Records
---
Amino acid sequence: MTLSEMENYFESIGEKKFRASQVFNWMYNNLVTEIDQMVNIPKSLKAKLEEQTTLNTLKLSDVQHSSSTGTTKYLFKTHDNHSIETVFIPDLKRNTLCVSTQIGCPLDCKFCATGLMGYTRNLSVGEIVDQYILTAAEVGKETITNIVYMGMGEPLINFDNTLQSVSIFTNELNKRISRNRVTVSTSGIPHKIIELADSPYRVKLALSLHSVFEDIRSKIMPINVKYSLAENIEAIRYYSRATKTRITFEYTMLSGINDRTEDVKALTKLCRSLPSKLNVIPFNSIAHMSPEGISRELKPTPKSRIDEFVAELRDNNITVMVRDTQGDDIAAACGQLAIRELKIPARNMRE
Ligand code: SAH
Ligand code: SF4
């Protein structure tokens, strides 16, 4: 619940409105996990709350820590026994929390473990915010400086819940996370990008690009058939103008598919045409899922080619960041821990 929803709730049960900010504070700022820990709440109200409400919607079920990078991956169980994951990525300048917005994802991108999992449902606002509350309780509440919506699922399909969680993070916490430290990553839903631009939550936007060519993009990202790259580019131009922010293009390097000389040329042209930067991501293999069709053929671009590709783009004055393979040793790529948890039947395993 947002603070105002909580106020309505307390009024509806005949309680004073100020109880809402007390409880809100306990939950979101003091990160308590038991109603009993809320020491300034009267016993009778605590009993009512115990009866009528649930404090946390997720349960921590596994933690994996990469000692080489400090990245920690949290696996949570939802009330209906599904698994979702949240990744904490500490860095010199910032400590980023990567949150999930759906159980699985309906968009079926061919390189993505979450896509291969299929789709179960949207996460509720509580389940999105709980990823923050429960990891902040683990790593220290002052520690998380940035939030990226780059975990499992497509945030712009779960639009309202994503926005409401952004609202809580950026407006309602004591130690607010400023909206230029929140990034929503999307595979590209143009009308939702426009709606986000026109909302009060003008967060940073990342578009999963992966190819500048419509036909290739459609092969690896089926959603491109419905919402073409051209429409998405128009939408992000609008977004960039309306929010005065730079768009990040995410670009997962797939050997022979998007790492050719013509890709460098087309990328250069696109990046020069609007305020943007390119985030090059080494492809994390999904072979453990024994994928079929085109997914089976996808191979990571060798590191030497990534280096050349990036150098060629930088020579063209394009701003390029190369994402570390953070947490490789703990399978911290999109959807991988939750997948392991699914216990893929042996017959689907590759020899
Ligand atoms: N659904 C949103 C956000 C979640 S995916 C989106 O697609 O943007 C976050 C990022 O991880 C996306 O850029 C996605 O393309 C990338 N990604 C997914 N699977 C990957 C893999 N196996 N290796 C590298 N990057 C991957
Ligand atoms: Fe969904 Fe993003 Fe994975 Fe595509 S890359 S299947 S949109 S989570």
---
Amino acid sequence: MGTVEPEVATTSEAAAPVTDGFQLVIDALKLNRIDTIYGLPGIPITDLTRRAQAEGLRVLAFRHEQNAGYAASIAGFLTQKPGVCLTVSAPGFLNGLNALAHATTNCFPMILISGSSEREIVDLQQGDYEEMDQLAIAKPLAKAAYRVLHAEDIGVGIARAIRAAVSGRPGGVYLDLPAKLFAQTIDAEAGKRTLIEVVDPAPRQIPAADAVARALEVLKSAKKPLIILGKGAAYAQADGEIRAFVERTGIPYLPMSMAKGLLPDTHEQSAAAARSYVLPEADVVMLVGARLNWLLSHGKGKTWGGKGHKDWGGQKFVQVDISPQEADSNVRVDAPVVGDIASCMAALNAALGAAWPKPPAEWLAAIAERRTKNVAKMAETLAKNPSPMNFHSALAVVRDIVKANPDAMFVNEGANALDFTRSIVDMYKPRKRIDVGTWGVMGIGMGYCVAAAVATGQQVIAIEGDSAFGFSGMEVETICRYNLPVCIVILNNNGVYKGTDVNPTGGPDVAPTVFVKGARYEKLMEAFGGVGVHVTTPAELRKAMEDAIRSRKPTLINAAIDETAGTESGRITSLNPTAKKK
Ligand code: OXT
Ligand code: ADP
Ligand code: MG
């Protein structure tokens, strides 16, 4: 543990070494094997970033705290360790807060550590530098929020933050560290004794045997069973147990977006290409780390075979989840299995028995028929080579490149740029696809790229809408500064959804969804020493992506896409208030 020089020696005897708040924060993180900080320096945490780096932590400095926060949140998803984001007070804290809320919403473990102003002045509202009651503001958006006032409590503060972030349902935790805390000094030996190495931060949660038996009974009764795998299943790193359960039961499965690749998308039991057939037809649905939220139409309505948009389709649900409150949140869950997914899937596998009956052949054949038809239709569309290039002809290239590089991390945001990519580009390995998540949020792109490269060491491929990229585009400087192997492809259709809207008044302003036509985003990458390429054909795109992956140089490929090609909001047009209710 590091120490600092005592300020003044008051007697002729050598004073005992002291430590300070800065050092205790660093020591507490290191003791808990947190080795990376995503952040942005400034008062009062500039020296914390310097000293953390000097002590061997990796400190990645961003251009905007929101991007550092998104990086921390996805690092948490990828590693099961809380991703740490460090910001300055009020405005920096607020910039990071969006990502903290995102982490909580998506069940990613993250700790937002923000420096803050002096409590006495803040509480009397006397107008301190960047004055704000940050703890109060963070609370409703975080799974937990703590403030540390005394150096002796730093060890407890960090330990509580780690436990809150990763135990049970993971989430975002806020840790408020007032400026005064960092400079407080205490005896170094005493300080060391205050630090806590967290034992078993995410304890296993074993499901009850009767819940497991009930779930298997319900599944056994099915004529048309279906498994839905969500990003909680991907997070759990229980890949072997999940695959074993799917294969031993023979039940068709649907991966949610970030669960793609948990089993290879080319797996014969994948029903992804028959989604709109299996949801209303299935009679028993087993959810594994997936919530029945908007992305699954709340488990009711026409998507599920119901008559109106609130009507239940008649399915039975089994739900495997670590949160005991999740079941019945939208429709009745007949068999909740509460526990961590690794333990639950192990228990389910153990209880399956050797002779589990495969699902009825008619069900499997009906799905196979739909899937074959849809895959053939897709293959036909992908084989076309229209001019100008459209989403499909560009994504046919991306699909091949990902197939040839299955270990690459894959970042995706946009509307059409997201939805087409999700259904066209297959994933082959778990936790490779990271995207807009539960909120469908734009702006995760470059932060995710940095964290994916840093946390995994793998090549990163990002497929970005031109609007989506704009939310975090300045971080290409960060990508160049750290020389990360990131290949960004912007599917540039000149706007949000399309580039063709017009201002109905005929006035000088363009429509709100339209950008500068033919914008040269690749020059942004060139400005910082990376490789920028402008492409207009699939052949050019293929070459540029292959070059980027071979060289591992930061690369931005600006792919000109037919500006008429997109649809309003991609696949979620029906959520626009003016759209007809489903
Ligand atoms: O079964 P059917 O026939 O239905 O077919 C399905 C599958 O069976 C089939 N499929 C396949 N066929 C063949 N082969 C294979 N392998 C295969 N796989 C699948 O394909 C279809 C579709 O399958 P899918 O995707 O599984 O099914 P579906 O029905 O789409 O699933 C439903 C959903 C809800 C699960 C799914 O659609 C989904 O996950 N959607 C996520 C949508 C989302 O999150 N969108 C992002 C938000 S949109 C909007 O909010 C935007 N904004 C506003 C904004 C935001 N978001 N954030 C902030 C901070 N500020 C503002 C903005 C500004 S998007 C946006 C920018 C947009 O512009 P860009 O320039 O960035 O992007 P472009 O649109 O490209 O211009
Ligand atoms: P998706 O968007 O992919 O459908 P969601 O984010 O809606 O996924 O759901 C993830 C679910 O996974 C949450 O309900 C969360 O409680 C659960 N979860 C997260 N981690 C674990 C885990 N280790 N074990 C069990 N459940 C988990
Ligand atoms: Mg666009």
